[in-house]
User: Fold these one by one.
Assistant:
Number 1:
Amino acid sequence: MTAISTPSLKKLTRNRRFFAFLSSFLFLISVIFTIFVEIGNLHRRPVLSDIYFIKLDLSHIIPGSVPNAALVNSIARTLGLHDFYQVGLWGFCEGYGDEITNCNELLAGATIALPNNVTSALTLIRTASHWMFALFLLGASLSFLSIFLVPLSIRTRWASLPLTLLTFLAAFATTAAAVIATAMFIIFRKVIHDAEDTVNIQADIGTEMFAFVWIAAGSALLGWAIQFGECCCCRSERDVRTGRRMGRRNGREDGDRAAGVEEKPEGKKGFRRRWISDSG
């Protein structure tokens, strides 16, 4: 192996360093936004209460075409039916008007008589929420590990192989959870809208939640793509020390000077001859 000074080594591997730390930063972003997804709708605090997958407006659950609809809606509210429900990953929040009064475990204690298709959709949400939670938790854990392990790929190209697998699993788990959440709640909103003739429920998708979900997924995917590219691109420290992928002439000359390698001026045929200076 060739002895190369630290400044020359950093110069020769600066591209790999840049992409490795960029990938690590992207996984940091993924972890941060996944945490926001995990804690959304867990508390009545203003920021957390705005992070939800879907909001159900039941303030006028009885259509206006029904006789005495206003009276029936008022009675339903007196009996404990809240004006709205917001569904998060772990639970849901409920309230009256624009004020959240309580947050509970997802669908705990829900005893409203709803159409069969709506009830089936609610059951699907409860089941899928466990899968989403597991995938988001797995993605966040693997992304957190990737933050600290990805820079190891600077040392040697061999480290990129297991790190590519690790980052792929992190990106896959986060993206799969994002796809499940998006598809499920869009379908549920359609089911609610199709049932407007029976019950007057308005369903709105949470913009903030899905923005966080896809920022986390997109960051993880981009971080994995960069790590995958490093398997064959950008020289590592080991490549430089072993003389492979030395790259441009100016970088090679820096390494040559550090290793005591000199160049002789061009000969008759225009070729440069190189030898290692005699240290003795």
Note: The radius of gyration is 29 Å.
Number 2:
Amino acid sequence: MTFPFSLPTTSHLLFPTHLSSSTHPSLPASASSHREILRSALKTHKRLASTEQSTHLFTVLSALESYLPFLFALDNGLSARTDIQIAPFSDISVEWRPTLSSTNVPGRETPRVKGTGLSYEIYSSLQTLATVHNLLARQQLLTLYSPTAPPDSTARLTAIQTALKNLLTANSIHNYLLQRSQSQPPSPPLPTSSTDLSPSLQSSLSSLSLASTTLLFVLKDDPYPPVVLQSHSKTDKEWMIAAPSIPKVRAHLFARLCVAASDHAAAASAGLLSDPKVSSELRNYCSDLAKTAKAKACRFLGIDADVAGRTGEAIAWLRAAKCTLDPSLASSFSIPSQSPSPGGKKFTSLKSSLSSAREDRRIARGASDWGLDAGKHEEMRILDWLERKWVKMNDTVNVQLVPELREVVKNMPSGREGLERSVWKPPEMDGGELGRMRAVGGGGGGDGTGFEGESSGDDLEQELGVGDGGSVRRGPVGAFPGTKDEYEYGYDDGRGNGGTSRSERRAYF
């Protein structure tokens, strides 16, 4: 499960008051129009209920994708990287609200941070785009844990693939921002109070998204989460027919991938510790995600041992995973021959069932803060389910000794990277749309005006009524076009019946 990010809000910004273009005069105004659509979408999203925000994310994404080509066209014009000529005549000043900063007053939003320069607008817009992709991935993953309507295998695979695509896009955007800050330092510098845009936080967010993507790659082929979810579903009746089939998995490979994900999450957590302004929820989430990934690695190593017939070692790996998620359990597993008392087992089982019921209700009502534990609860349910199964099998059939935890933990393998870091590419404007914004060029007309068929200057003076002395003869206000002479000299119907002039009619009355 991804972190429950929140979208920012921003202030008004009119590019024509700060920039002008001699080659594409309407480009700043068009960029302002698309930015106003984005600003309105962000403002509307903030006011919606949490159940309605999930469907509104696509509106925000569409507004961002329409606005970014115009924004980068202005940036390329200022940097003289294209034939677009942009001339600044005042500093751009805009406000964005940071969403990952800690607040001194609980319940109060972080105030908006005012920054100058086009780079501040670019960084803030791209950070918003990465947040939208993270939220879209979170929305897809939320459907996998629905207690009332668990998805089938096809819907589950589609949701995971869509979430994987969104997380990869978010990771590439963070990599682009980090690379841009190193190769093209923003000028003027970004405000220090904008924590979301700092290079250290972007590096941590890149590691965090890479860890989530790696775990999602493992989740695609992990058969145990849907089996455990099916066992907790009240509407499931398949257990009356047959036991759920669990296919074999590449347990050792998945374990190494989870170790790599744990390392990325730990690197993100270490990077956030250096910045005290970052939200404590994000720091705790990175720490919990590292524990969850390591617990998954222990579980897959236990599955590998169980397939090889080493049930005692498999149980030890499960208990090592549970101790990783909850260090307070280490004392109960310190002596292998000692087992908890029957009363303690009943109390632990009751506590686990109450916790599972509470989490199911949170998922059913779509709680916005669900998932802040980075999947620790879901992983603990899988570990409890496997431990009950393997302990029962070991006590009745195999009767193998369970080794000490430190003996199995020291055999933890190294991590293996499953995905490569990619860098996001800025979008470019369509050639036809950019061509419509060009200024009128010189030459081409036979009269030297630029276009064929254009009226000359003498015709324009005659149409406006400019005399030889340069004075303008204006017609009466509200008169029909072309009837100015009739008001002055009278109306003639073409049959010799002249009418009275305006001055004569006035003298008559």
Note: The longest strand covers residues 93-96.
Number 3:
Amino acid sequence: MSAGQPTRHHSVSSRSQGSRTSKSAGTTQLQRPQLDDIQNDFEPCAATPSYFLHAQRNVIFCLHHDTLAIERKFEQHKEDVLLIAADNVSDNGAGRLVVSYDAGQRAIVWNLLTGQEIARFDSYEPIKVAAWMRNGYIAFGNTQGHIILFDPKTSEHFSARTIYDPVTALAPALDCKTFAIG
């Protein structure tokens, strides 16, 4: 490694099921956990100023922040929920609209206060990330490197190719035209 470049360090927790240590000739070699093992450790969740949202399989529980009492359950998904994003930025939905995405590649936009479904979006490719924008649109990032902008009011969407790797992080700018992606 040349001077000035950062060194990479890998750590493996004792909880990781896919990690193994083996001793040979006084050295310890660590095998990295499988990516699937890491992803299964996280449960989908989101928060608004008043509620905490948590998914268990295909049901999303809406809990009050103060008491953690269950306010309602959203049970419209047929498959396990993989992603939840709450609208905390737009003027239209501020704290009351939520999008959830399931293993069947279906995203459902719903009203947190009533439990009413607002719109549905079926994706062609698996979605990895969702972010609400100030104009009320939802930006989805998929495994093919596309950003899909979805308008819950009209159910219209359009897609733009960005990178040739999966979009796993997405942050829309205030102008709703620029994104930071990863």
Note: The mean pLDDT is 80.
Number 4:
Amino acid sequence: MLLHKLGLLPLGAALANAFADTSPFFFFSTSELLISVPEIQTPSTLIPRLSNLLSSCPSDFYVLVSQPGLDASDLSWFPRSAPNLRRRMDGTNKDVRSSFEIRDVLGEVNSAEIEKSLAEMCRAGVVAVDASTGSFPILSDATPRVIRLDFPSLPTTRGAMKAAEHDAFLNSVLDLLPSEKYTVIYTTSHIQDSVEGSQIQENDQLYEMNNGMWEDEVHMDLKRDFSASSGLAHVSKKDEIQLPDGPLFARYQFFTPGIFMGLFVSFILLSILYIAITALSSLQVSYLAFDKEMGPAAQKKKEQSQ
């Protein structure tokens, strides 16, 4: 019996080591989709399932998010650091009609393969966005597009803070889409996998245009303090809107023309009310005016009236 237990130890260690390299996978869409996915998947089985699921091209935009440096053990803190993603996954956001989560994906999902499949099936333009620059092109029409959003790897320290920044950036991208029909495929990878793939990501171009889909690009900065030497040689500074640094009153406008007009009208109405109250209070009437006349003069008046 003891020998049998000792023989199972290497098998248990191998299984634990295998699941240590797993990473979570998230999917949500504003379209009604019939979803049936096992809890454990490998990239070789997951990618064909996604292709089948999206074969009808139910959305106008397909956002492929890549978040390196996140594995299954990080799910203890990651949902708290990504509140916008959590609301879309747990059904709090009513715009999302289909979603599923795979806690353990054995291996790294190849986003490029998913991107190629969607571009061919849905005849969609493709653009790659590097979130480290904090800029994203605002779209003016709902032409089908595949948007690949590559986040930097989460650091081993203060990873929750960086995850919150990435979650806010993704939420801003989804809010800027001109159509409410979108699908998000959120892939993650173990820290070792992300280090191996970092050299490939550095060689990716920030923006890719397909068939002249991108017209009248207006670049809005969604993140402060990004480097000016990020390689955006084809984007001029005048086309970028940068959030100003400084104190709170320097970054936001608290008194708009509408508020000023409301305060001005309120001042006039309060002035009129003050004048009216002052005029009423200045009236002086003698108390004798309300007293009944008595004495001989009153008796005489009574006799004359009879």
Note: Confidence is low (pLDDT under 50) at residues 1-19, 193-243.
